[in-house]
């Protein structure tokens, strides 16, 4: 949400949709790559054998989505089928109300409902 606002992209614009795809593709690639590096050193997670990932199927394959050519998916697929991945679960998009408060960003991926709101915490009620 914050990124779209800073870039002045309407939430439902083609630019926002493409940026969202680009960001998540990059996050997913990095997560799979790092997990594969860990698997090379420590071995794959216990039930990796027989998983879609062990057969070279990434999440986007399971959903019929074609990734961009920004990243070398073929090389990563080969690495994953050879060494596995260390983690069965890789990404968990946030934010939550707590992390948003700490990081100073919006607590949702939805458009802002207001630019000001009240937050109640143990220390009291504050206008944000």
Looking at this protein, list some descriptive labels:
128 residues, mainly alpha, 2 domains, 5 helices, 2 strands, extended, ATP binding, NrdE_NrdA_C, deoxyribonucleotide synthesis, ribonucleoside-diphosphate reductase activity, thioredoxin disulfide as acceptor
Overall geometry comes to extended
Q: What pattern of helices and strands is seen along the backbone?
A: HHHHHEE
| CA distance, first residue to last residue | 16 Å
Can you tell me the number of structural domains? Answer: 2
What percentage of amino acids are in beta strands? Answer: 5-15%
Radius of gyration: 19 Å
| Overall pLDDT score | 89
Number of helices: 5
Domain Ribonucleotide reductase large subunit: 73-95
Keywords: Deoxyribonucleotide synthesis
InterPro entries: NrdE_NrdA_C, RNR_lg_C, Rrm1
Pfam families: Ribonuc_red_lgC (PF02867)
What do you see in this structure?
The chain is built from five helices and two strands; from the N terminus they run H-H-H-H-H-E-E. The longest helix is centred in the first third of the chain and has 29 residues, at 14-42. The chain has two domains: 2-90, no CATH class; 94-128, no CATH class. It has helices spanning 2-6, 14-42, 59-62, 73-83, 97-103, and strands spanning 118-121, 124-127. The mean pLDDT is 89. Helix 2 packs parallel to helix 4. 44% of the residues lie in helices and 6% in strands. The protein is mostly helical and 128 residues long. It has a two-stranded antiparallel ribbon with strand order 1-2.
